[in-house]
Design goal:
CATH superfamily of the domain at 2-166 and 218-276: Phosphoenolpyruvate-binding domains
Radius of gyration: 29 Å
Distance between the termini: 58 Å
Structural class: alpha/beta
Strand order of the largest sheet: 1-2-3-4-5-6-7-11
CATH topology of the domain at 2-166 and 218-276: TIM Barrel
Shape: globular
Largest sheet: 8 strands, parallel, barrel
Strand content: 25-35%
CATH architecture of the domain at 2-166 and 218-276: Alpha-Beta Barrel
CATH class of the domain at 2-166 and 218-276: Alpha Beta
Length: 632
């Protein structure tokens, strides 16, 4: 039976707690420093509070220290790791191999970050030999790639991203942000070069695409492939989002929790939860209602042309229909408001060709005639007509235009309130002993006892004048705001007589048993490498990210033709110009090459004139964005 982990993001303590309430088996959160999202650091005190909240549910807390370190930062990194160890953090997610070498000692388990570019069997085997206890695979891998790695290195638990924003470059191999803006992606300061608009120009300076977001990928959504990923060997499913707000965390975590639980229940005996408890939601999770740039499964099955969204890097949201009509309202008949509140000026409104229910405050967007994203807020909704807060937007909106909702006010109000409660089902057993009584708490998962905690309590046996069973059950069922829940049917009494136990005594016994730490569920991990083995292995080139550390830390990215980005995503393919498309015959490929409306090489040009040559490695199916030949 394989333990399955849903790993959710936490921007801060509030997000972490809500991730747990909404069903996360593990949470990853940034340390005060050295995380790949510099803007999402958290204090040691907040991380400690999250650990205390998480562990009763068997939820693990992983802290991200996944940037590359300057030499003079090693002592600070060591001190930080020592602090994290004292608050019972469960693992560190790291990029810099020196955290596994003699330069820094980590008493905590280490997970190999996707920033280490874990793409091959050799990569993952090296992480296993170095003592990493989980590997976060590169996002670009296909289902077959993942299955092949698992079959070759079955001892290594594999973690994959299943939802959220995508980097167009292989993680850990992007130097564009640092080169252009002095903000290193490998230091947690990415300036999102890939979300900028570019011209695509050919060798003659001809503009093929003008000011389009050519490197801006859609967001990942692999919700429909969770079961296939489980069968391929994945044990940890990771949601991206350490810069996202709490409503995103609630909605995405709840959605994937339901998906994973359905599979575990249907395939009983093959998979199990890696934490305790069951979450009850007050809303229906819907991924379309949370921030998204539209979705892609990103290479999981095959290369597709719709991985990017050239029009905008912003959230688009869910489709809600098309504009049915735009007409002036009649202030005397188009409202049910009291007459003294009616504005007697005519307002232009719109209606939509769908049954979608709208709310005051909804945010809608659409693409105008120039394929630019436009947006507006709904001021009010009356009798199926929408009143924009800024009516001038209707000057560029036409009948038949598709509309999207990127802010659902009613849904957000639901998520702003308490939206989930997570409790661990337990059973009580009270029995008498020669010295007094023994109280046992049994933690239940899928009707199976997975842990129990017993405390014997010396206490005199004194017969009661009235029946005591109902009173005992009433006291034991009072679990209040603890993480546990039970019913009277979950309380077993094995008493040889009608003993009298005061309610205050029962309450104290209950408190002591409940406050005993619940051990974390067992989790299969590779054996830790002996210290000397880790030190020697960390020096091997094939076990480290040494080939990319120097560029990231120095800002020097080699000569004029050195890559700033290496991407599996390919613009020639996305635009329909690939001559090696597997769906084409050799004759069709040659015909496509002859008919291409440009002369290579191609380049990307920013609005300020900086131009970045593109290099296409068709053997590897990769595209490289190169350093400008003539930097400004």
């Amino acid at each position: 039976m394989r333990s399955i982990e849903l790993l959710s993001p936490a921007r801060n303590l509030e997000c972490g707690i809500e991730a747990i309430r909404h069903g996360a088996d593990a949470v990853y959160i940034g340390a005060p420093r050295f995380g790949a999202r510099a803007a999402a650091g958290n204090s040691i005190e907040d991380i400690a509070a999250l650990v205390r909240f998480a562990h009763p549910f068997g939820v693990r807390i992983y802290v991200t220290l996944n940037t590359l370190l300057h030499d003079d930062e090693l002592p600070e990194a060591q001190a930080l790791i020592d602090q994290l160890a004292t608050i019972d953090v469960d693992a560190l997610i790291v990029q810099d191999e020196r955290i596994r070498s003699s330069q820094i000692f980590s008493p905590l388990p280490l997970h190999s970050s996707t920033q280490m570019d874990n793409r091959t069997i050799e990569d993952v085997r090296a992480r296993l030999e170095a003592g990493y206890q989980q590997t976060v695979l590169a996002r670009e891998l296909s289902l077959d790639d993942i299955r092949t790695i698992h079959e070759a290195v079955p001892q290594m638990p594999l973690e994959v991203f299943v939802h959220g924003a995508l980097c167009v470059c292989y993680s850990g191999r992007c130097f564009a942000s640092e080169y252009c803006f002095g903000r290193s992606a490998n230091r947690g300061e990415c300036a999102q070069f890939c979300r900028l608009p570019f011209d695509l120009i050919d060798a003659d300076g001809k503009i093929i695409e003008q000011q389009r977001h050519l490197l801006s990928l859609r967001d990942m959504n692999r919700a429909d492939d969770i079961e296939a990923l489980m069968d391929a060997g994945v044990t940890s499913f990771k949601i991206e989002g350490r810069l996202k707000d709490v409503s995103y965390v609630k909605n995405t975590t709840a959605y994937y929790r339901q998906r994973i639980d359905e599979i575990i229940e249907r395939r009983e005996g093959e998979f199990c939860r890696s934490s305790y408890g069951h979450s009850i939601f007050t809303f229906q999770p819907d991924l379309n209602k949370t921030f998204n740039r539209r979705f892609t499964d990103y290479f999981l099955h095959e290369r597709t042309k719709d991985m990017a969204c050239f029009a905008t890097p912003k959230a688009i949201g869910e489709p809600v229909g098309k504009v049915k009509e735009i007409t002036p309202s009649n202030p005397l008949t188009a409202t049910k408001r009291p007459s003294h509140l009616i504005s007697h000026r005519r307002e232009t409104t719109l209606s939509v060709t769908d049954t979608t229910t709208f709310s005051n405050g909804d945010g809608l967007c659409f693409f105008d005639d120039k394929d630019r994203l436009q947006g507006f807020r709904i001021n009010r909704v009356e009798e199926g007509r929408l009143y924009p807060a800024d009516p001038s937007i209707l000057n560029v909106l036409h009948k038949g235009t598709p509309l999207f909702r990127n802010y659902d006010a009613a849904f957000e109000r639901q998520l702003a309130r308490p939206s989930a409660d997570r409790r661990i089902p337990v059973r009580w057993l009270l029995e008498d002993t020669e010295e007094g009584f023994r109280l046992t708490l049994q933690v239940i998962q899928s009707s199976v006892i997975i842990h129990q905690s017993s405390i014997p309590f010396p206490y005199p046996h004194e017969l009661a004048r009235t029946p005591q069973a109902d009173n005992i059950r009433r006291q034991l069922i009072r679990l209040g705001d603890t993480s546990y829940i039970c019913t009277e049917a979950d309380i077993a009494l094995r008493l040889s007589d009608n003993w009298f136990i005061p309610a205050s005594v029962l309450g104290e016994w209950r408190r002591q048993v409940v406050e005993r730490p619940t051990p974390l569920p067992l989790k299969d991990s590779p054996p830790a490498l002996p210290r000397e083995g880790a030190e020697s292995l960390a020096k091997r080139k094939d076990c480290s990210s040494g080939n990319i550390i120097a560029p990231s830390l120095t800002g020097k990215v080699g000569g004029e033709s050195s890559p700033l980005m290496t991407c599996r995503y390919c613009l020639r393919y996305a635009l329909g110009y690939c001559t090696r498309d597997t769906k084409l015959s050799s004759t069709q490929g040659k015909e496509r090459e002859r008919n291409r409306p440009f002369r290579e090489p191609l380049s990307l040009r920013l609005a300020d004139g900086r131009t970045f040559p593109l290099r296409f490695d068709c053997q590897r199916c990769e595209m490289q964005v190169l350093r400008p030949a003539h930097p400004h």
